[in-house]
Design a protein that fits this description.
Layout (H helix, E strand, L loop, with lengths): L2 H12 L37 E6 L5 H7 L1 H11 L2 E4 L5 H9 L5 E4 L4 H8 L1 E8 L7 E7 L15 E4 L5 H15 L8 E4 L3 H9 L5 E5 H9 L9 E9 L3 E5 L4 H13 L6 H6 L6 E4 L2 H4 L1 H9 L8
Parallel strand pairs: 1-2, 1-3, 6-7, 6-8
Antiparallel strand pairs: 3-10, 4-10, 4-11, 5-8, 5-9
Helix pairs in contact: 1-6, 1-12, 3-9, 4-5, 6-12
Organism: Rubrimonas cliftonensis
Pfam family, one: Phosphonate-bd
Keywords: Signal
Length: 316
């Protein structure tokens, strides 16, 4: 058993709480084939085939940077689907989930931690994620500090401030919460002050500028920020590195017409990375292609972390 899975199991044992919520889809969605994602409606009246497709990337960094990074892919998406595609800059994971649930968002990349919530509450059907040229994929959660902070080990965070990103983020909240409790017997409020920065880049900049004593972040974001020289490597000290997690999952709203869903999948699988704006940005963290994923299999560890943290998939 990996260290993280051990930590997750430890949290489940430590938590003197009612039985944890089991993952399930909201009642508005069906899952007849048992693959844990919403089925495409069989009633034609429930299907949509919009002239303009709205695309959103997970709100981890400056939206302006990513509108430019995704430009070449969105042009390719337009060519394959025959639709106009609009980039929609979202400001929070919750807003992104709500936009898809309300029918205002058709194609999206949801971050690792919010992926199960998007699947359960918004009818999100993930089918691909980025990977390196050799097929390897994922990122690690890091707990970071800055040189001279007085924080030499994870235990030294006691009595200080630790920045999370948002409660729906895996590396920005869920995984470190499970690990800190199970491996270090540390909890927010009792052992340290938890603050929420909203985004990974905010947490990383906060540590680099000595606003936070420590933060939990996704190292893929840190690497891209270092490559863009937003921060320098010597501004950060890494206290902890987790096992590898699946990265942002890309997919569609469940009620898009089946033929349109297939064309969108084709656009992801046929996109040529070499020389593209997507390669220019995401090669900084090692990505070079899109590969197929299974929410049921690839996100099993993330659902386990949710279970350990007592996450309830209740949809408002």
């Amino acid at each position: 058993m990996s260290r993280l899975l051990s930590a997750v199991a430890g949290v489940a044992l430590l938590a003197a709480a009612p039985a944890m919520a089991e993952f399930r889809l909201d009642s508005r969605y069906a899952d007849a084939d048992g693959d844990m994602i919403a089925d495409i409606p069989t009633d034609p009246a429930q299907l949509v085939d919009p002239d303009t497709l709205i695309f959103a990337y997970t709100p981890v960094e400056d939206p302006a940077v990513y509108a430019e990074a995704w430009a070449d892919f969105l042009t390719h998406l337009e060519e394959v689907t025959g639709k106009t595609v609009q980039f929609f800059p979202v400001q929070s994971n919750a807003a992104q989930i709500e936009a898809m649930r309300a029918g205002r968002l058709h194609i999206a990349g949801f971050n690792t931690g919010s992926n199960p919530l998007a699947v359960a509450c918004a009818g999100f059907r993930p089918f691909t994620m980025m990977a390196a040229a050799d097929g390897s994929f994922g990122y690690e959660m890091e707990i970071i500090t800055y040189p001279g902070s007085g924080v030499e080990t994870v235990e030294d965070i006691k009595g200080k401030q630790l920045a999370f990103t948002s409660e729906t983020s895996n590396s920005g909240f869920k995984a470190p919460s499970a690990i800190l409790k199970a491996d270090y017997d540390m909890e927010p409020g009792r052992d340290f002050e938890a603050v929420f920065s909203g985004k990974h880049d905010n947490s990383i900049l906060g540590v680099a500028n000595k606003d936070y004593a420590a933060a939990s972040i996704a190292n893929s974001v840190r690497k891209r920020m270092e490559s863009r020289e937003v921060i320098s490597a010597d501004q950060i000290r890494i206290l902890y590195t987790s096992q590898t997690f699946p990265t942002t999952g890309y997919g569609v709203a469940h009620n898009l017409a089946p033929e349109l869903q297939e064309k969108i999948k084709e656009a992801f699988s046929s996109f040529q990375w070499e020389g593209s704006s997507l390669e220019a940005e995401f090669s900084k963290s090692g990505e070079a292609q899109f590969i197929p994923i299974s929410f049921q299999e690839d996100w099993a560890v993330i659902r386990k972390i949710d279970e350990a943290n007592g996450v309830a998939y209740t949809c408002q």
